[in-house]
Specification:
Length: 276
């Protein structure tokens, strides 16, 4: 082990999810999500990552015609402190009936435990979109329901649904996410019914509940695919939507009934239902 490591703190003004996707595709190591951005740790200097983030921010600004502020602060720290500091920074949290905790914390005997090690996953429940998706799953997923998790990421939403007694399929276009979902299902002693790399258009079944925690633009692109795998009276949970894009997304789901809107910070999760 090297004597020192590098910690990069990234603070963003907006578009947290798009930067998260960029880091997921770019980094060879995991990263920690915070309320204002990310923390990345590596034994190698992170100057290249800083440059990449700044270039990505510049490209986004041009594409969206919006101002995006990004601040990157890199610090050199003693390696002996890394694990201890990192573990202390990750607190278990309760989301409805779920208790999300890393392996170094004890489970809660009164709640449904989901074990997620942040270093191995991109979704830990701490981001508002993941938290509100879990709240919706806790309320609307029933025992023996069929569930599809689209864009499964770390697998945390699917694992939660399985622990409620549902039969869960999951997919993601990123093979790293599929691998993370598989690892986290094993960590929780549960099993996905079917797990594949690719889009929901490859699904062979229809589902009682379909959940997609992605980003607003993608939710509009795949609206027909999501609705095509939903049963006639099925429930669709859409998350990853900044509140300013709510109307844009809903415009693609006019044929569904709005059951609930879960608002956390500047993020919206929509719970929609197809009528019989």
């Amino acid at each position: 082990m090297q004597e020192h490591y590098f910690e990069l703190v990234v603070n963003l003004s907006s578009h947290h999810s798009l930067f998260s996707d960029f880091l997921s595709d770019t980094l060879p190591v995991g990263f920690e999500e915070t309320d204002t951005g990310f923390i990345i740790r590596s034994e190698d200097e992170l100057d290249t990552i800083i440059w990449g983030l700044e270039q990505f921010a510049e490209a986004l600004q041009k594409a969206l015609s919006q101002s995006i502020e990004i601040e990157c602060t890199q610090t050199k720290l003693k390696n002996a402190d890394w694990i201890e500091v990192y573990q202390k920074s990750i607190e278990p949290l309760q989301i409805d009936k779920f208790y999300i905790h890393p392996t170094w914390n004890e489970p809660n005997s009164e709640l449904i435990n989901i074990t997620i090690d942040p270093a191995l996953a991109f979704g830990t429940g701490h981001h508002p979109t993941t938290a509100s998706s879990l709240r919706a799953i806790a309320k609307y997923v029933k025992k023996d329901a069929s569930v599809l998790d689209v864009g499964c990421g770390s697998g945390i939403l699917g694992v939660g649904a399985i622990k409620l007694g549902a039969k869960v399929d999951a997919c993601d276009t990123d093979i790293v996410c599929i691998q993370n979902s598989q690892k986290n299902s094993e960590l929780n002693d549960v099993e996905f019914n079917n797990l594949w790399e690719g889009s929901c258009s490859l699904a062979e079944n229809s589902y009682d509940v379909v959940v997609a925690n992605i980003v607003a633009d993608v939710l509009t692109f795949i609206a027909n695919d999501l609705k095509s795998v939903l049963k006639d009276d099925g429930i669709l949970i859409l998350s990853g939507i900044l509140d300013k894009y709510e109307k844009k997304v809903l415009n693609f789901y006019k044929d569904l009934e709005i059951l609930e809107k879960i608002h956390e910070q500047e993020w919206i999760t929509l719970v929609l239902k197809r009528g019989k």
